[in-house]
Description:
Radius of gyration: 18 Å
Strand order of the largest sheet: 3-2-1-4-5-6-7
Number of strands: 7
Amino acid sequence: xxxxxxxxxxxxxxxLVTGAGSGLGAAFAEALAEAxxxxxxxxxxxxxxxxxxxxxxxxxxxxxxxxxxxxxxxDAVAMVRVAVEQLGGVDIAFANAGIAEGSEPLLESRLETWxxxxxxxxTGVYLTAREAAKVMVPRGRGKIISTSSIYGFVANxxxxxxxxxxxxxxxxxxxxxxxxxxxxxxxxxxxxIAPTFARTNVAGGILRGDTEExxxxxxxxxxxxxxxxIGAPEEFKGVAVFLASNASNLVTGATIxxxxxxxxx
Length: 265
């Protein structure tokens, strides 16, 4: 008789995680390894990816570090090719890499800022999914997961902040739906996670609470969050393993908020 916990085991699978050098990406990579997967840790900075890979090797799983800019087509192609060559395939693709632009009033905003954010946060997800699907479709199975945001559903409460980020993350929500429909005949499930604010390096680390400005911003967020706090990267591990495992085989096209109730108001 199968135990339900067996559905969450990832033994024998290979995962590729972008943005794996820190924050949520590092937590996702470690979570998949803890559940049994070998992991290709991809990051813009190879040294950061290597640190995550080292922690994964320490728990007895195989891991490689790959330097890639997910907004560049050649890099996306290469990172998947390296994962296949060195780890034997890609069963789980986690398109997590992302950036957040700073505050620019609309009338003073620059196309360069907009384009860079869209390129990384939306086009990077598309490229990661496309290249991973090329490996998964012939095998007839796979899991593609991306990181959206609560700002994929609502606007930033601070006027003038994050318009490109929110637009890209909303795009991820509908890209997830579109890919889920297209890839369903190939037994590939496509889902996303919409995290709340968490103590990571995004947007220059404003959510780490290191400065007075940072602490004031966190206080505003806490006031708007029903559970009364922001998240920690490790609190997103469970949903990552769920979406990467057989436990979610009937789930596709979904974006799951992990938000402390932020979207429930």
